[in-house]
Design a protein that fits this description.
5-stranded antiparallel beta sheet; alpha+beta
């Protein structure tokens, strides 16, 4: 019997099946890509929040810990711009007792290395940042300054907190960082040196990205009236020796007060506009017209097309200087 051969038939997918499979594959790929992009955005946002948290908790904490030392172990338990070794360094008188034969101070230092208002860079429109300089006496072993250098017992340490430009990584505006520069000196140097040379320089970064830095001085006076309308030094009325009139004042306003009537400094208030170090993705809630309030300063950011890619936060801290509540003689 003759064998009948059937025609050859190939097995596989029909065109319709291929189209359906391709469509499903594209849908699944699109979903996977969307999940990946969303995850990347979430990671960037989390990284931005971590940057702000690190700046707030660790950077600010380090700075506050140093400032609390101001005026530590000084002979006079109050601070102004005249007292030798005063914890808030406002003038050359706080650093040296070296006198010429005529009694004038034989010591000079650039005022831009002292506590000053509105002298540093800022990313706020038409504003400048403040600078805070403190000092204290080292009285314990194994102590380090803000740059990480070991200190010698019996030396005085000066620390300058300021904003400076850092290496830019395609940052919006200026890549500003809060830094600290430190120098130590001996009592002999305070009596014989004519200047301090090592307060210049970039110092060590404390907080990597700060758009603005503000400082206010907390002051106290002996009030002669209950409403503090008259204070010690303003008249011949007797005082009771109690510090009962408190307030905060800008650095330039404090320096502008009468030399015979400057109140003593008992606290410091600091404010920072901190931003994330890394871009966190486009922030749809960013408002380029928003005004940021940092203590006495209120202003908008300098314009930049990249401002909305970063997170920002205003942080403030009031620091009572426990070494500054003595009563003036």
């Amino acid at each position: 019997m003759k064998e009948i051969k059937l025609p050859y038939r190939s097995s596989g997918f029909t065109l319709l099946e291929l189209m359906v499979a391709l469509t499903l594959g594209l849908i699944i790929s699109a979903a996977a890509i969307q999940i990946f992009i969303t995850s990347q955005r979430d990671f960037s946002s989390q990284q931005g929040y971590m940057d702000l948290q690190n700046s707030s908790l660790f950077g600010m904490g380090t700075m506050v810990r140093e400032i609390r030392l101001a005026n530590l172990n000084k002979g006079q338990a109050y601070m102004d711009d005249k007292k030798l070794y005063g914890g808030i360094v406002l003038s050359a008188n706080n650093l040296s007792s070296n006198r010429k034969e005529d009694g004038s101070l034989n010591f000079s230092i650039d005022t831009n290395l002292l506590t000053r208002g509105e002298i540093g860079p800022s990313n706020l429109k038409d504003q400048k940042s403040d600078q805070l300089v403190i000092q204290y006496l080292v009285n314990v072993p194994n102590q380090f300054d803000c740059e990480g250098r070991s200190l010698i017992e019996g030396n005085y340490v000066v620390e300058r907190f300021f904003l400076r430009e850092d290496v830019s990584r395609n940052d919006p505006n200026k890549a500003l960082a809060l830094a600290c520069k430190a120098q130590s000196y001996t009592e002999y140097q305070a009596q014989n040196s004519t200047t301090l040379d090592d307060l210049t320089g970039e110092g060590e970064i404390v907080i990597p990205r700060v758009d603005h830095f503000s400082v206010m001085l907390g002051t106290a006076q002996d009030g002669m009236k209950a409403d503090c309308s008259d204070v010690a030094g303003a008249s011949d009325v007797a005082v009771d020796g109690n510090l009962d009139c408190f307030g905060y004042i800008r650095i330039p306003d404090y320096l502008a007060l009468s030399a015979t009537n400057k109140p003593q400094i008992v606290s410091v208030k600091i404010g920072l506009l901190v931003r994330s170090l890394n871009a966190s993705g486009k922030n749809k809630f960013f408002n380029k017209d928003q005004e940021y309030q940092i203590l006495q300063t209120k202003a908008k950011l300098n314009e930049s097309e990249r401002n909305d890619l970063y997170l920002r936060n205003v942080i403030t801290q009031t620091i009572a200087l426990r070494n500054g509540f003595g009563v003036k003689n």
